[in-house]
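> call design_seq(struct)
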């Protein structure tokens, strides 16, 4: 069982209402959140299926879920711990009619994007770089980075 500092203990036992935890890397945020979720379920009798824990990476979500299972047992399987992106995708697929789509939209992953760029690479006549022709995989990865930058900016 981890030892919590005063600030972590305060966050873990904070009343069952929204709480924002801001701290730098490696300061124990995930440990604190896991402790808080366990406290809400074990002490405050919160329903595990009513808890949503969002993080940025799949690895972090898996780690959180595994630590919850270790801490509170099988009930942890009912806590929804996932990435922001997977949660958004799940909600989009679940509520696509309410979002104005007539059918469930296709959400592409990185592999799909690479495939589409690869099958269209030869159609990009303006891009006759010898580097692209020598190493199309590297070219595709470069395009993906550019498209991602456009999307985020």
């Amino acid at each position: 069982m981890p030892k919590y500092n005063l600030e972590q203990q305060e966050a873990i036992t904070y009343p069952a209402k929204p709480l924002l935890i801001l701290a730098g890397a490696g300061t124990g945020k995930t440990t604190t959140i896991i402790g808080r979720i366990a406290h809400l379920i074990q002490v405050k009798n919160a329903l595990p299926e009513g808890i949503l824990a969002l993080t940025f990476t799949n690895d972090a979500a898996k780690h959180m879920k595994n630590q919850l299972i270790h801490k509170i047992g099988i009930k942890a399987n009912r806590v929804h711990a996932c990435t922001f992106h997977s949660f958004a995708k799940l909600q989009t697929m679940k509520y696509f009619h309410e979002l104005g789509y007539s059918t469930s939209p296709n959400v592409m992953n990185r592999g799909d994007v690479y495939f589409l760029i690869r099958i269209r690479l030869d159609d990009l006549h303006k891009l006759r770089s010898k580097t692209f022709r020598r190493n199309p995989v590297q070219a595709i990865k470069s395009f993906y980075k550019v498209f991602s930058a456009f999307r985020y900016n």
